Amino acid sequence: MRDFLATTATLALVVATPALAQSTAAGDSAQAAPAAQETQDSPAARQSQDDILVTARRREESIRDVPGTINAVTGDQLDAKGPVAGSGDLLNTVPGVRFNDVASENLAEVSIRGSGTARATGADSGVGLFVNGAYVGSSTLGGRNFKTLDYFDVERVESLEGPQGALYGRNSEFGVVNIVLAKPKFQSSGYVRDTFSFGLNQNRFAAVVNEPLSDKLALRVGGEIYAQGRGFYYDPNHDRYYDSTHGWNGRAQLRYRSGNLDVNLLVDGQDLSLPSFVNSLVIAPGTNTAVPLGYYQSRYVLPHDGKDGLNQKVGRVMLNASYDFGWAKLESTTMATRWRSSQFYGAAIDFATLQTMRQKGELGIYPFTQVHTNVVDRTLYQDLHLTGTADGGKLNWIVGAEGLYQKDDYRLAINSSPCAFTLVTQSVCTGTPTDRVCLKPLPTSTACPAIPAGIYGTDSNTAQRIYSLAAYASLTYQLGDLSLTGEARISHDYKTASQYIYALYTTTYTRLPTTFVFKKEQPAFTATASYKLPGDTHTLLYAKIGTGYRAGGVNNGSFNANAPNPFMYTYDNETTVGYEAGVKSTVTKGVFLRLSAYLSRTKDAITSINDGCTVTNACLQAGQQFNVNGGTIEAKGLEAALDGRWKLAGGMFSLGLNAATQRAHFIKVPAGVTGLPTLDSSVAQIPDWTMSASVNYRHPLTEKESIFVNFNYQGQRGGIQDTVTASTPAIPMTDFDIFGAQAGLNVGKVQVAVFARNLTDTQIQVLKFMQAGYPLSVRYNKPRTIGVSVSTRW
Fold this sequence. Notes:
Layout: H1 2-15, E1 53-54, E2 61-62, E3 70-74, H2 75-81, H3 87-91, E4 97-100, E5 109-112, E6 127-131, E7 134-135, E8 154-161, H4 165-168, E9 175-181, E10 189-197, E11 202-212, E12 217-228, E13 234-235, E14 240-241, E15 246-258, E16 261-274, E17 280-283, E18 295-296, E19 309-324, E20 328-345, H5 351-359, E21 370-390, E22 395-415, E23 428-432, E24 435-439, E25 457-479, E26 482-503, E27 509-532, E28 540-550, E29 553-554, E30 570-571, E31 574-588, E32 591-603, E33 606-610, E34 625-629, E35 632-648, E36 651-668, E37 689-700, E38 705-717, E39 736-747, E40 750-757, E41 765-771, E42 774-780, E43 785-793
Parallel strand pairs: 6-9
Antiparallel strand pairs: 1-2, 3-8, 4-5, 6-7, 8-9, 10-11, 10-43, 11-12, 12-15, 13-14, 15-16, 16-19, 17-18, 17-42, 19-20, 20-21, 21-22, 22-25, 23-24, 25-26, 26-27, 27-28, 28-31, 29-30, 31-32, 32-35, 33-34, 35-36, 36-37, 37-38, 38-39, 39-40, 40-43, 41-42
């Protein structure tokens, strides 16, 4: 399949060469997309200025008629702000939704309302991730974030907030994000775009060609190539950049439409080397016994003796089909995918730095810690449902079934020293059991033991199999302006997980292999009432209650009797019930307002804690994160969003504002277990406030020329980084204000744009790593990036 996918991407780039056309929607909002770009099969073609059609409730409907907090961002709106560089760009204008960007695609994840990403590291996401209606998430590393391939050639991104267990099932506990990819249209269209980012010296070349082969058959092929010559974060020991991206992704689609039948076959894939994260040491003098004089690393230049890097490969086949019987419409979504995510990382310190520390009489930091994760995920997904109406259109119904099979194989290898690392006079043991290496930081350092007493690390392998079946139904009845909706689902989950842990580089078990079986049936429901007020404002009032859950699982790691918080192998499901009330209204011509308030309660909350180990305490190994059921969480919040669009000074001005305030805290914590969250402590990674704004203006100069400009903003206030325990104090998250801009010119069929990310070059500590209550290292955000984009669209 890899050869076929590579050929597909190459074909797209070869085909899409000479075509030139006008980028008619350049720099404008999705609402202004001209009809010339769309056909009758596209939701964007049928939208009014504040009326986007979505399929978030498994049927096509106007976003303003959905009684709940739903947002849709179109591809044109995303392009107006500049090139999409990550999942965060898809969601940073959605109130209540936050992307936890930790500088690695493998670790980043989406949070909605009270889901708090850091409280369940290593577990399933509490947010359902879907592409074209197919579930693409998993509980392994890399499975709580979209792949780069998923935000290539996007039509729109839909986010549905609050528990969505009734329609979407497992792991849609706090909401759903569904990326809808652009599908073949029955007219010639496409685009070619080249983007260069200075500082990174990164070039992205993308091309998409859409051609009707007949009145019933249409083809869409596209691809994107990444190449990068520099970066911001540099490893001088290996002359390479931690934040380098290179590789490709590609997609081919064939659509058949005849009468009431509409079938789309999609084949796509990616092979990308992506940025790995890096931490800078920030040890203040007198705060760390191993480095008492303190040590501050550069933010950008960090020598490292180990390996670093992340590679993700994806292969996917998807079939979406629908048939309209007249009395009902049958829709089917089938997906088969295989992806692999492999990453190397470790403390960014080298042996030369350790030597300098030892010369000053400091123990220093072990320089050869190395972590390797490798995930292979295979997913089969099938959804089949009928939608229809009855009673003269007053009754809308859905009946469906869903099946999911996932085969996840996960490897976690952690290198550590087989010798004690506790005295300044000791040498450093490293290497392998068959190729032992002893390095002397000082001429007077004592020799390493001939045969080290410890192991060189652990190699944990987990084979997980998930089988999930579900049946669901929805009924909506219209009583004049009053609408009542009921949704229900019953899910059956069966999971097996076998874990094998060896001493690294050997076949010797550090503990006996274990197999765990998880089996449970879980009901879910949603009940909604809405009322549309008479008048030109089309005001919709609604109230709803819903439930959702995310599946429990197995922790990857090993038991250490010396750990302050003993490792636990399994954790159970968590469940959430949520309440919401809101209003949607066109407050004046061209201005659409949404307000909502919610309250939710989560039982058996899956919470990530640390076992408290370090290489310098009694554990003699790095600490392990693992998940437990940490108690009951109550979350509440308010969200507001305003979208406006007006003619201004001969051009078109559009504005999007949103803000959300929320709080989630533990109201109940189990007794008798150490390391659990403190009662009434806040849930990690939930800011007190999030806000964003996007301002866009487009002005014609002549019949064939126009200029456009976009300013965007994203801010955050309050919140804590990690779970608060009796031994772990609260670590406040960094408040920030990030600005971006894009401006450009359309001349005939060509668009030239200049963009800037993090315009003010704001420095943010996105993660702070503490030891004994003091900072040890930090991870920073991406600095200012300026670039230029040249494109043509037809």
